[in-house]
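Backbone-to-sequence.
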């Protein structure tokens, strides 16, 4: 093998094979130095196979110091292909190659080049892989409406505007491809409101294009990952949230000065909130919001905002009661637990689950018993209800990989006052609907 070791040849083979399989084109400079050498001919054979299985040009031959007869003697198929004559100069060769590699009107080529710039390695433009990105470009039927944010899907961000030029179309396709990639990762890794901040930051920083999208749309990030708005957890976004909070507080003070009643029904003191809902966890007093308001926001996002809910509401409550959530500041953790109890929508049934809970004969027993009981004192946990609770909590422990046993989680749940608060919430709702 001459001066190369076996391991070096192996690495070369892998790299060359990878390049041959993923490249859009193969520029073959035919010269006297090329003809007769083993490795160039092996690579050329690979490109010939690609060419034979493609309707488009793959091999782009450049003749350097060879006549037609010499090329014909070496490879008759190459002699029959249109070739670029190197004798006409470097500028001519480059321009001729660009006509093929980057033709006018090819938005997919623009998209592919943009993806490479952003650190993503896409397949060739003739691959079926691109179909999904093109379809996603027009998938949001709510785009351009006040419900726009609801249509991009979980961990979705607005795409660049629909344009008429090749460059504009290519840019939109590129970001659609990137978005589909990070949405797939988020789904496979269950990236959610309960994911540790360091994992979220790793996800953002190591996924092409995502950091740029988060910086451009921090309010979307605050919805998908509200834990990053908690002081100390924001990382590179901390200063953005600080400035956002400052502006939000200024706006809310102005609302209060003009005697506005906006948001007063959501606060603990009946006054104007001190900041936007999305920033409540970034503010020392949680914006003076009722805990149920922010717990609701934490679990299912902003009104008319993007979809963020990954688990059933009961799963979020159980996670907060588990040591798995111990990384949260104690004040924030207790505030969210209190909010989920007072929101009182944590009950599970056989039909209302956002997850794939396998139902059984006991499923919904707790919900049915609570609905029948007039008061908390009249409520009793029967063996059937106990099985329902244990079955549901076993599922939560499994999907969230919680460290506690079913008995430990059940004890924490029954001791936190969630059932008592459910009855209190029902009483409050009845009084509101019938105040007389």
């Amino acid at each position: 093998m001459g001066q190369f070791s076996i391991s070096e040849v192996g690495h070369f083979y892998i790299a060359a094979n990878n390049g041959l399989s993923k490249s859009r084109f193969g520029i073959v400079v035919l010269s006297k130095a090329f003809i007769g050498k083993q490795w160039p001919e092996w690579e050329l054979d690979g490109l010939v196979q690609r060419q034979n299985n493609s309707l488009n040009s793959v091999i782009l031959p450049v003749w350097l110091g060879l006549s037609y007869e010499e090329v014909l003697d070496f490879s008759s198929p190459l002699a029959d292909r249109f070739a670029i004559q190197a004798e006409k100069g470097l500028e001519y060769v480059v321009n001729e190659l660009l006509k093929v590699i980057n033709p006018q009107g090819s938005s997919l080529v623009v998209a592919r080049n943009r993806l490479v710039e952003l650190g993503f390695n896409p397949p060739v433009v003739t691959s079926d892989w691109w179909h999904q990105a093109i379809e996603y470009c027009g998938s949001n039927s709510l785009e351009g409406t006040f419900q726009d944010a609801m249509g991009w899907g979980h961990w979705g961000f607005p795409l660049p505007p629909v344009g008429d030029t090749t460059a504009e179309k290519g840019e939109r396709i590129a970001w659609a491809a990137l978005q589909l990639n990070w949405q797939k990762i988020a789904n496979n890794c269950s990236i959610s409101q309960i994911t540790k901040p360091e994992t979220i930051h790793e996800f953002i920083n190591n996924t092409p294009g995502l950091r740029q999208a988060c910086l451009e749309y921090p309010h979307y990030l605050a919805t998908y990952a509200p834990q990053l708005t908690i002081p100390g957890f924001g990382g590179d976004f901390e200063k953005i949230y600080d400035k956002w909070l400052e502006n939000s507080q200024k706006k809310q003070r102005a609302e209060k000065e003009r005697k506005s009643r906006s948001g007063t029904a959501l606060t603990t003191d009946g006054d104007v909130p001190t900041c936007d809902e999305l920033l409540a966890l970034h503010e020392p007093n949680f914006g003076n919001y009722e805990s149920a308001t922010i717990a609701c926001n934490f679990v299912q996002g902003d009104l008319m905002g993007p979809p963020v809910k990954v688990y059933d509401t009961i799963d979020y409550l159980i996670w907060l009661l588990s040591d798995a959530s111990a990384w949260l500041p104690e004040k924030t953790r207790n505030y969210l637990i209190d909010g989920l109890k007072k929101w009182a929508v944590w009950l599970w049934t056989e039909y209302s689950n956002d997850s794939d809970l396998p139902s059984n004969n006991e499923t919904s027993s707790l919900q049915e018993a609570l609905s029948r009981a007039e008061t908390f004192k009249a409520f009793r946990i029967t063996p059937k209800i106990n099985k329902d609770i244990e079955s549901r909590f076993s599922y939560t422990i499994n999907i969230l990989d919680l460290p506690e046993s079913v008995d430990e989680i059940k004890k924490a749940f029954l001791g936190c006052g969630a059932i008592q608060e459910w009855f209190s919430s029902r009483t409050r709702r009845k009084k509101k609907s019938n105040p007389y």
